[in-house]
Amino acid sequence: MAVLLETTLGDLVIDLYTEERPRACLNFLKLCKVKYYNYCLIYNVQRDFIIQTGDPMGTGRGGESIFCQLYGDQARFFEAEKVPRIKHKKKGTVSMVNNGNDQHGSQFLITTGENLDYLDGVHTVFGEVTEGMDVLKTINETFVDKDFIPYQDIRINHTVILDDPFEDPPGLSVPDRSPEPTKEQLDSGRIGADEEIDDLKGRSADEIEEVQAEKEAKTRAILLEMVGDLPDAEVKPPENVLFVCKLNPVTTDEDLEIIFSRFGPIKSCEVIRDWKTGESLCYAFIEFEKEEDCEKAYFKMDNVLIDDRRIHVDFSQSVAKIKWKGKGGRYTKDDFKEYEKERDKPSKLALKEKVKPKQDAKYDLVLDEDIEESQTSQSHLAKKQKKKKHHHSEDEEDDKRTKKSKDSDRKHEGERCREKMKSEKKDRHRSRSRSQERDYAYSKQRDKYKDDFQIRDWDKKADRSRSPKKSKDKERSKYR
């Protein structure tokens, strides 16, 4: 139970599931027998999914079952067979196309992918491709438009029944031979199935080489555009610029300009140098004002000896003069040069840890009044900071109260405790500084009192030594 489909790309052999799908197989076999599928277009090719055919109109909206020829238009479609259930698991599965009402006509599809579970239960599987998988692969890889219609026609030329287990129903008219196709049937508005697509036919070998070189150049330009090395694939180099290579490293811009200026006025002459070291890369670009002068220099200056070197001259293929930064590139060579210049300059910024405090050679005396003023200013600053922190904490608390009241209360209490601790620490610091000042003043006063007391004691002793009793005793001792 098999059918051979002869297509424009090769032959396909389909084995039918006559026991599981008897009605679908009967319909398909008798349509093949009456040559209904001859010259039908394969009008839907979705890569690695399906190929669809079976509509003589070639639109996917026509077709009728064999029962329409036997019983009339009321039998144009027949009911789908869903039992037993057969799945679309492998490539080459053949199934009847559902018309949207669980009915089938003449259209069928062949899967080109595996495990297409979403087709199960919708389209009725009735066979599989057993021979011609390479032909199925070529059909799968054909070029199609946005509606999945092949640009070149692929048709079923002929159908051959290899084995038919069903008897012909009464009233079935079988033609003696295959009918000839009509013009309307073959005119699809696309490239014919028998037409050869050969652009190189009737051309010489040189012309074929030129065409191939142009194609290769286009593909390279497209790749360079995709990478970001060209602004556009269609961009062309200037025709008035010469490329000079194999130069001596000693040769300068002025030397080349003097040599090539005899052919005509020169706009610019530049020897390309390494942008880091400044050494010559032994090639240059010379731009002329006129294309005629450029052509003269090209024909006369090739293989000329300059500075003991034979140079090579060709037309420039560079588009570096176009100012752009590339499709994905951010920087140019000029940007890198500026970056290196800025990098060499000493930076004005420094980290706080590395900054050394400024030390003055002069030391000024600090008075008690200055200390008091600095302390008062520090206290005012501390109060302002307290107020700012307090306002900031209040704003935070308002925001947090709208979200979570419990968390805000806890955080508020914690902040109050922290503020109290800070205020207590500051009060202790102030009391310590005041006590230190008092101790300092008290020690000074005490030193003064000690000095005064010592002076008084010394005076008293002196007075005692000069008392009248002692003086009388001294006088008496003199007279003794």
Q: What characteristics describe this protein?
A:
480 residues, 9-stranded antiparallel sheet, 11 helices, 40% helix, flat
What does this structure look like?
The protein is an alpha+beta fold. The protein has 11 helices and 17 strands. The protein has helices at residues 22-33, 66-71, 133-140, 183-186, 205-227, 253-260, 291-301, 333-344, 368-403, 405-465, 468-479, and strands at 2-7, 10-16, 40-41, 44-46, 50-53, 78-79, 93-96, 103-104, 108-111, 124-131, 155-161, 241-245, 266-273, 280-288, 305-306, 309-310, 312-315. Strands 3-11-1-2-10-7-9-5-4 form a 9-stranded antiparallel β-sheet. A 4-stranded antiparallel β-sheet has the order 13-14-12-17, covered by helices on one side. Mean pLDDT is 80; it is low at 358-371 and 465-472.
